[in-house]
Amino acid sequence: GRYKTYHPGVATGSFVVPGADMAFCHENPRVALFDIEWVNDLTRIAGIANLVAINQAVAIDLTGQVASESIGATMYTGPGGQLVWTMGALFARGGRAIHVLPSTARAGTVSRIVAQLALGTVVTVPRTFVDFVVTEYGVANLQGRTQRQRALALIDLAHPRFREALRREAHRLFWP
């Protein structure tokens, strides 16, 4: 963070989850906590040149919709600042928004890259704001891509065990 516009060299946030990181944060001049309205202010975020916002996803569908709050109707967390930091990075001069996720869940038995999000899943980041997606199988740049190009790029990020089924679903959905 040495090149940040606000508080260069200082990790800023609005809370710390209790655990091992608490000792690191305690009275550390390189860590500062602020009110969430300040941390998640879109206009301030967009003013940070070359910002790279990295957020985790629970699942992503072949259109590029990012789910980070729920799977189906089962809620796991709230949105936090994910959408505002994604948008802020895209509005920032030279900014990039990256969504990361492991390609599978449940010991490799479930793909996190899915043809369509499960019914009731909350879309945290709409596909139009998704820039880069990263799994252990690579990186996909989705900005400016067609629906079909997005699907093919995301299939390449899926675990090889799930790619053929995803290709079949993509052809059913996007090549009628």
Provide a short characterization of the protein structure:
This protein has six helices and 13 strands. It is an alpha/beta fold and 176 residues long.
CATH architecture of the largest domain: 3-Layer(aba) Sandwich
Sequence of secondary-structure elements: EHEHHEEEEEHEEEEEEHH
**Strand order within the widest beta sheet:** 3-8-12-13
How many DSSP helices? Answer: 6
Question: How much of the residues is beta strand, in percent?
Answer: 15-25%
What does this structure look like?
- With 176 residues, the chain is α/β, with parallel strands linked by helices.
- It folds into 2 domains: 1-39, no CATH class; 51-174, 3-Layer(aba) Sandwich (Glutaconate Coenzyme A-transferase), CATH 3.40.1080.20.
- The protein has helices at residues 21-25, 36-39, 42-46, 82-91, 147-157, 160-174, and strands at residues 11-13, 31-33, 52-56, 59-61, 66-67, 70-71, 74-75, 96-100, 104-105, 110-111, 113-114, 132-135, 138-141.
- The strands form 5 sheets. The chain has a 4-stranded mixed β-sheet.
- Strand 1, helix 1 and strand 2 (31-33) form a beta-alpha-beta unit.
- Helix 5 packs antiparallel against helix 6.
- The protein is globular, with a radius of gyration of 18 Å.
Observed structural traits:
Glutaconate Coenzyme A-transferase, 6 helices, 4-stranded mixed beta sheet, 3-stranded mixed beta sheet, 2 domains, alpha/beta, 176 residues, 13 strands, 28% helix
